[in-house]
């Protein structure tokens, strides 16, 4: 099961050439992951407050395929690739009018208050296993 988030490219997202600045794709996919988790019922604020656990990006492998431009409507697609006891790996793509512009595989670690890797909270793991393919 994949999740989709639509967003528009604003002037502030572009560089001097009028295309989306490369680092902004990372912001777009962050929004996609956050909304994906929210739609799965994972409340990251509650997870931090009650479990003392947070998610942190550990690794990103990204490919920039085609440029997005001012006023484009983008679709950020997120799907679960792999789930372990303490790590979530997602595949993400940014598309425009059916064309894939950017792809990434993102590894997210679950950390405790000291920044050490820990297991996912049981409820979070359970929700993520529901979408595992």
From TrEMBL:
Origin species: Paracoccus maritimus
Protein name: Tol-pal system-associated acyl-CoA thioesterase
Membership in a protein family: Belongs to the 4-hydroxybenzoyl-CoA thioesterase family.
Highest rank taxon of the organism: Bacteria
Gene name as annotated: ybgC
NCBIfam families: thio_ybgC (TIGR02799), YbgC/FadM family acyl-CoA thioesterase (TIGR00051)
Keywords, in A-Z order: Hydrolase
Pfam family, one: 4HBT_2
């Amino acid at each position: 099961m994949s999740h989709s988030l639509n967003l528009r490219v604003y002037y502030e997202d572009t560089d001097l050439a009028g295309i989306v600045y490369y680092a902004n794709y990372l912001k777009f996919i962050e929004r996609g992951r956050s909304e994906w988790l929210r739609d799965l019922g994972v409340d990251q604020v509650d997870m931090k407050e009650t479990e003392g656990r947070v998610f942190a990006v550990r690794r990103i492998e990204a490919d920039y395929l085609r440029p997005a431009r001012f006023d484009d409507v983008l679709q950020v697609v997120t799907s679960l690739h792999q789930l372990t006891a303490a790590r979530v790996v997602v595949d993400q793509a940014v598309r425009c009018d059916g064309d894939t512009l950017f792809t990434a595989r993102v590894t997210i670690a679950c950390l405790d208050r000291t920044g050490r890797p820990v297991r996912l909270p049981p409820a979070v793991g359970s929700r993520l296993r529901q979408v595992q393919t």
